[in-house]
Structure formats: C-alpha cells, structure tokens
Amino acid sequence: MKRIGLAVGLLAAGALSLSTQAPAEKAEIRPFVGAYLPTGPQRDLFKAAALFGTQVAAEIDETLHLVGTFAWSPVHNKYAGVDENVSIFSYDLGVEVGVTRPMANDWLFKPFAGLGVGGRAYEFKATTLSDRSCAAAYGSLGSELQIARMALRFEARDNVFCYKSPVAGVDAKTRNDVVLAFGVAYHFR
Questions:
Q1: Collapsing DSSP states into helix, strand and coil, what is residue 67?
Q2: pLDDT tens across 128-158, in order?
Q3: Most Cβ neighbours (<10 Å): which of 8, 17, 32, 162?
Q4: Which residues constitute the domain of residue 118?
Q5: Cα–chain-centroid distance for residue 27?
Q6: 177: number of Cβ within 10 Å
Q7: Domain with 90 in it: what CATH number?
C-alpha cells in the first residue's frame, strides 16, 4: 500500500508542477466513475466491477495534455477455493492529443486520443493469495463537452499489462482489460 500512496503522490506532484512551470499551461482535475471490464483470460479470474478515480492534467496547448491517472476498482475474483474481493489500483502517466470544435451556445466539443504507461497493483483480501504489482500501458479514445471551466468527459481505455498470479510458482503473463469512464473536468485558468 505504501507503493500505491507514493505513486499517487508522485502523479499529483508531477502534474501540479507541470501546470506551474509556464503561464501558458493550464491545470485540470477530472474525477470519474466507470466500469472495469476484464477481457480474454482475465475474465476467467475477475468479474466486471465499478471503477473510481481521478486524473490531473496539464494543458500544454489546445491540442496536447499531459495526464496523470489513479483509479481503484473493488473486484470479485474467481480463484478456485477463494471467494473474496481484491482491490485493483491503476496509476499511470500519459499524453492526450485532440482537437477543439466550437458548438452552439459556447459549448466546445473536444475529441481526443491518448497513450500512457504506468503500473497496476492487486491487493487480495484472502490471506492465501499474495499481493502483486506489475507494469501497464494503455491507449484511449474519448471526448469532452466543455462550457466555460466545466466539462463532461467520456473515455474508453484499452489496458495492456503484465499479470503476476497471486499463487506461487505461476509465471507473469501479458493480459488485457477495458475501462469505460464518465466524469467531469474542472479547468483552472
């Protein structure tokens, strides 16, 4: 848990320091909720679940954002003989590239695509399973509808990560899952 706290602190500090380096950069905070959807072999180990998190971003210019994300999902695992929950923590840094299109009544439509790298940690409640963490990467697509400083956001992420089994003697494997998130954004000026 200490590593997760350190990762969250570093993400927040990094994003906030980026936003204060130059007057042209603008900071954003983006809380969100969503769905964690395991795919492929990951579906055999975990059930779909809710997802909660936040992003901090630094707008470098109208088309480029640096983004730090932290998310938590309380998931039910399907390990044989162990019917307990696990907390999955995701943390990453990335970039978003997008365009801004004015709409009626001062709304802005801002579709984007993103890429990033980070990590993932699994904290199992069952004492027979070991907590694990590993590297991760993502690609995302989404859009934002902004008016003044507030915006509504939708983002779909495809995550690729190494997965280390909580059972001793099982090698790490590359896995995949999808996250669908809806949230708001507040743009500081």
A1: strand
A2: 888 999 999 999 999 999 999 999 999 999 9
A3: 32
A4: 2-187
A5: 17
A6: 25
A7: 2.40.160.20
